[in-house]
Amino acid sequence: MKKILYSLLIFASATLFAQKNTKVKFAILGDMVGTTTLFENQKESVQSTQAYKAANLPQKLKKFSFIAEQGLTEVKFKNNVGIPDNISLSQLNVQSNLPKDTPVIIEGYEFKDTNMRIYAVIAQQMEVKEYNGIKSLFITTTAK
Questions:
Q1: Distance, CA of 12 to CA of 88 (rounded, Å)
Q2: What is the pLDDT of residues 48-83, one digit of tens each?
Q3: What is the distance between the alpha carbons of residues 132 and 18, in angstroms, rounded to a whole number?
Q4: Nearest one of 78, 72, 81 to 32, comparing CA atoms
Q5: How many CB atoms sit inside 10 A of residue 137's CB?
Q6: How many CA atoms lie within 13 A of 118 on its CB side?
Q7: What is 3-45 written as a DSSP string?
Q8: Measured on CA atoms in the order 17, 19, 22, 26, is the torsion positive or negative?
Q9: CA-based angle 60:61:64, to the nearest 5?
């Protein structure tokens, strides 16, 4: 009986660590991932935004469909605005002493392609935890 309870407890805790934060809405600028909050704070730089539902993503955004459950916003900056600081997930893994190809968990969403780039400012908190038996980097986009 104890083994069953321990197994359920371990499964429940693993599930909790990877729960998706449905309050966070992702946004794409170019080919890089940010959040809608990031771009709301940079309104003077934004030329336009286009929100899409997961089922209606244009072809160029289909590779981001795994983070589009709550919709996905495409952002375009004005011509004279530079691109915010960004970093690849593989670089973040290396900085965290993890293999560069280890999937990264951002707000409960598993990013398997570690060549993908994110805007550095969305990584408010980073922590290495075990996920599916592998040490993985967990990123939270809101300060606690």
A1: 30
A2: 999 999 889 999 999 999 999 889 999 999 888 888
A3: 10
A4: 72
A5: 24
A6: 27
A7: HHHHHHHHHHHHHHHT---TT--EEEETTEEEEHHHHHTTGGG
A8: positive
A9: 140
* C-alpha distance from residue 80 to each of 46, 77, 85, 130 (Å): 11, 8, 16, 43
Structure tokens at 19: 């729960």
Q: Is 77 helix (H, G, I), strand (E, B) or coil?
A: strand
Identify the H or E element spanning 105. strand 104-106
Supply the DSSP symbol for 69.
T
pLDDT at 19: 73
Task: Give the start-to-end residue ranges of the domains of the chain.
Answer: 2-140
Name the percent of the chain lying above pLDDT 90. Answer: 62
Structure tokens at 137: 């980097």
Distance of alpha carbon 84 from alpha carbon 9, whole angstroms? 42
The torsion angles phi and psi of 112, rounded to 5 degrees, stand at: -80, -30
The residue to which tokens 């038996």 are assigned: 133
In whole angstroms, what is the distance from residue 143 CA to residue 66 CA? 23
